[in-house]
Amino acid sequence: MHEDSKAGVSRRDFILGSTKIGTTAVVINYLGTDLSMAKAKENIIGQPSGAPEAWGQDLNKVPFRYDGLAKVMGQKLYAFDIRAKDLKGWPLDEERAVILRANDANKVFEGIDSKKIKKELGVDRLVSSPDLEKAGIKPDGFFTSSVMAQIGKDPQFLGQPVGLAYFSDTERFLDVRPRLADISSYLKFGASTKSESAKAYGTSRIVRYTDDKGQELFSYAKDGSFRPPWQSPNLNGSNNARASYYAEKIKKDLNGNKWQLVEGKFGTQSVDPVFMEAEGGLAWYDPDKRELHMTLGTQSPLDDAEGCLKMLAKAKSIKIDRVVVNTCYPGGGFGGRDHSEFPLYLCLAAIFNPGKSIRVVHSRFDQFQAGLKRHAAQIKTKLAVDKQGKFQAFHTDMTLDGGGQNNYSFAVQNVGGRNASSGYAFPRSWVDSQAKPSIGVPAGSMRGFGSLQAAFAMECLVDEAAEKLKIDPIDLRMKNIITDPQAVHTGTVPLFRINSDLLLEKARQTSLWKNRDRDKKNRSKGDTLYGVGVALAVKSYGKNPGDTCLSTVMIDADGKLSMHTNSVDMGNGTATTLPQSLSGPLGRHADQIKMGVSSEFEALKLYSKRARSQEDQDKFAKDPRWVPFKAMSTAASAGAYQMRHACIQAAEVLLKHGLWPAALSIWQKTPEQLPWRKDQIRWEDGALSVPGQVKIPLKTLAAQAHKKGLVTGAMVHTYYRAGWTTARYSIEGQDQELKADALALRHGKGEDFKVLTRSEVNYPPMSHFDKGADLYTPYAVVAAVEVNRKSGKVKVVGGETFLDCGQVVNKDIVEGQMHGAWAMGIGQTLFEDSPKHEGGPGQGGWNLHRYMVPRARDVAVESVKFNIVSGPVQDPPKGMAEVVLNAVPPAIVNAIAHATGKRFRQLPIQPKKILESLS
């Protein structure tokens, strides 16, 4: 049995372990078990919170993933597996609930045939929109659409919930569960309606123009932001009008110069994340104590709690004083569970059936019907190249299908536009991007975040330009890549050099590329056509502007290190790599990590209020407890650089103000006799080593720090906006600057963290919002394919990839991301497809029997090689989980073009398209 935060909690612990949303206390409870202390025969619940014993054998290298042993042992890691009996204090009376969904969005919804569904399926109770309206329940904040389809109106999208059905009889539920896959006979619809155009979820424009001498005349980063509606062109007008002026100037340049123009209309399909586990969870509402408990897997636990509370804010008789969220592993996702609507329905299921543990059953069929999708896209791109092969201008117009709910569409279209240049330098650039609503399943922040769609179009056009100019495709790319200190097309100069040239040179030397024409001639025989293609992708990482990271690093008297963070491992391996971040400052990895933690960081006593101007920021920052954002959801490949930074900041405070004074006392030295010098500190076999002094094992230092009441824990809040926030603190009588805007310390054996008041703080200027991303990672792919003339099937038969991700924390994790992205990219290019609207997953009945994904035989497991390339300067670790996907589809498409002589611009490229092109 696992004890959640509710059971046996004292008033003191309650206050310390809670955050506030409005007047409601919110506890984000890490649902985990110390696997190193558990026996295999025990019923182990939740995420592992203690590293397996094998991790202690090598302090620098870990033998396997932190959560790997727990998974193979059958530990209950996912909310899908957990039952009420596993959670101490929860009612054992567990009922099941199912979300009923609309399979038609073009007719007026007239309600559920409650008598029929109760009689035929044994439903005990139904909750639908009239019940919500009567109770005063309405979404607010991030979720602004109707929670359930309203009677007398069209459903907003296919798969929109129309009701919750409860089942108290387990056997009856299991008997009728298959029939719930098609509930059309229980839903009542009226006449067909006329669709109306709706306002875009988000619209962006990025324009940059430099003159012949390279002087920047206009850019988003230099001149500042502007928003739609777009104004008439005016060189002397507002930024908006000036952007329109230079956009028109680029249009004239494209048509009025003797440049080689290549252009095309490209399309990408709606794609499902195909989680390892479908969403699922348990909820329990205790009306007497006015408490709501939820157990679920999520990327954004605090945001989920906030969404539920805002939905209930105006409820007439439902009052909640405390919310406890037990966080579980999400089972992968890469964005697919970032602000999912599922927690809202988990909350509602408990609210309308109080006093019982309610498990919302969500099968893979349900996940396909309702889970967030990758945005389908239509991209028009025009590229201009001069006779020397230098890129002169490009214009991209990208439209994303956001489905029926504005999840992260407003941001995805913007990030897609900001990454539209694919790592090339352009003196003139103009990108328009937007996300529009439809009746499709809502799309969200799936891996790539809009940049995959943009990279596909640009990389295919670059190959077309090379063909027309009769230039080797790698040579053309090498002529035009961004090099230090060139700006990307937003006008922002990247913080670290983008080493695309190193990767392309490596790609050029592969046998696949060097011999591609010879091999094409030799291997294209009979019905087989052979080809090799290349692609480059450069992707920003982090949520800049606005990366907010929290970390706590502690050491016990036995020298065991523990780490708590608001980050969630969503398949990116941070449960493994973040503990390893302590190896530098503290000589070994963390022995314990708790992820998705939020409540304990209330010890920092922070509050946030949105600053809308530099004047606002300067005013708010005078309050030492103010921060721009308190926390963020896990996203944007931010683990390697941003989250790791927070962990290291905390660890270095622990080292300097806890372990170093402990060492001085053991050596019997004063700070004057042996001043702190970070550059002289080394860790050798788990012992602190300083020239001229006896080595001291970490365990000995920890015992001394606890004995003397020195710093034994540090908690930090960090913020990045195209630069780290810095602040000054008086720590143990020493004035010190940290790249952190909040700090709390724990001493000796004390369990309480005490917040320190910063004396000054320097937030990056508000103008950095317009700089956007300044952190980028490059990736190059060479892919080989065989195309069968008779069947039209395309088979990937080989490949080699090259990545520069800065310092590598864990090579196995990096390579694992590359392997997974290779398979995912092949799926996006050749296999995965589903209609966006009618006939698609939104109408139900879809699973892996209809949605085709690549298998091992399809991904050239034995003939693809993944390479990690080190730059001339070893940069810090860079986010890379998204970029390694983006280059795969265009490399395959370019290989197909090399094999067949035909260009394909719409994904996926399935046999029918091949046969039509070759006929």
TrEMBL record:
InterPro entries: Ald_Oxase/Xan_DH_a/b_sf, Ald_Oxase/xanthine_DH-like, AldOxase/xan_DH_MoCoBD1, AldOxase/xan_DH_MoCoBD2, AldOxase/xan_DH_Mopterin-bd_sf
Signal sequence residues: none
Gene3D superfamilies: Aldehyde oxidase/xanthine dehydrogenase, molybdopterin binding domain
Molecular function GO terms recorded: iron ion binding; oxidoreductase activity
Residue ranges occupied by any Aldehyde oxidase/xanthine dehydrogenase second molybdopterin binding domain in the UniProt entry: 506-595, 627-859
Matches recorded under SUPFAM superfamilies: CO dehydrogenase molybdoprotein N-domain-like (SSF54665), Molybdenum cofactor-binding domain (SSF56003)
Domain Aldehyde oxidase/xanthine dehydrogenase first molybdopterin binding: 261-481
PANTHER family according to UniProt: ALDEHYDE OXIDOREDUCTASE MOLYBDENUM-BINDING SUBUNIT PAOC, XANTHINE DEHYDROGENASE
Protein name per Swiss-Prot or TrEMBL: CO or xanthine dehydrogenase, Mo-binding subunit
Lineage, uppermost ranks: Bacteria, Pseudomonadati, Bdellovibrionota, Oligoflexia, Oligoflexales
